[in-house]
Amino acid sequence: MDAPVDVVGRTALLLRAVAAAEPTGAGTAALARAAGLARPTAHRLLTSLEAEGLTERTPEHGHWVLGPELYLLGSAAAARYDVTAHAQPVVRRLALATGESAFFSARRGEETICLLREDGSFPLRSHVLHEGIRFPLGVASAGLAILAHLPEAQVRDFLARHDLTAEHGPAHAVRPLRTRIRRTRELGYAVNPGLLVEGSWGMGAAVFDAAGRPGWALSLTGIAQRFGPARRRELGALLLHEAHELSQAVQSAADVTPRARG
């Protein structure tokens, strides 16, 4: 008997591809490639999602974008999952204090997704990260910070199942990635020395939930000339401080919310 078609899984992949294409959206063919689906399958699913208000098409180019029903569903879930209200002032402080671009990213399964961006005063900026972009764990400083703080058994399992070199190059092979994981554990924060875009450096620190799991990360990006050894130590200490404060705020909110609902 043929294996059942995972319609829900395919739909989820497609919605993530649409989200990654925001705010301009993307055409059916591009979304099909991003989700690993045949174009007719992607078109059929996108049309069904449109009928439910989960996707829609832009009037200018006919690109697919997220629909209004997703906003309503997200608003309903925000009370349980949204920590951006706590993170927003932290990200702004980091941008103001450093002059660099500051970010807040969340772990979703085996990926990170950037939720917040705040640009600092320095006129030259890195544009590697933007709100909505996703990377596998271990890629970019936020994903490296989170991966390094997972239990070792989970790290081994992740590295055994994923070949990050296909999309992100030989610097993301297991051996060099293991070296960066070890260094991240030693320092407490992660450093990405221009591995995604040459000359664009990043640093990240994990933010922990009430169970002590790394669920989010704060990060900074900028040009290589502003990330010399002395300044990396300064920025690393700042990131760790702000990540600790945000972890405490998130954990306190998690303790209060169930009682408030009761």
UniProtKB/TrEMBL annotation:
Keywords: DNA-binding, Transcription, Transcription regulation
The keyword Transmembrane is assigned to this record: no
Domain IclR-ED: 69-252
Keyword Transcription regulation: yes
SUPFAM superfamilies: GAF domain-like (SSF55781), Winged helix' DNA-binding domain (SSF46785)
Domain HTH iclR-type intervals: 5-68
Protein name, as recorded: IclR family transcriptional regulator
